Amino acid sequence: MKVQDLEFKKFITASAISEKVKALANQLNHDYKDKTPIFLPILNGSFIFAADLLKEVKFPCRVSFVKTSSYAGTTSTGQLKTLIGHDESLFNQHIIIVEDIVDTGLTLEKIIEELRSLGAKSVEAVTLLRKKPAREKKN
Hints:
Blueprint: E1 2-3, E2 6-7, H1 14-31, E3 38-43, H2 47-56, E4 62-63, E5 66-72, E6 75-84, E7 94-102, H3 106-117, E8 122-130, H4 132-135
Parallel strand pairs: 3-4, 3-5, 3-7, 7-8
Antiparallel strand pairs: 1-2, 5-6
């Protein structure tokens, strides 16, 4: 597949993605069965993953979207910009960040830091794919 001047090859099947989404949802169903967290999908990339994941969630929850950017083209700038923020208090709330791909981990690290500073009770992230540079971070 070619998008603008970038070429992509399929390396994960739809069934493998579906299985992973269900496994992640099952873990969340176990971990949050007695809580009402706020899912915070990071737009634009995670919206399909978030929709598929939330179809499998069996506990009460809320959803609020956020749009961030730390990229110029295909390269991370190292600077996080919150473009569209959440519109409700996150104080004393359980937050689950939904990200499709964690590349460097910078965006996720900054978002977690920001949410903790707002007084969130807990902050966790669920991601479909995590690239090697992000795996080398603590998050």
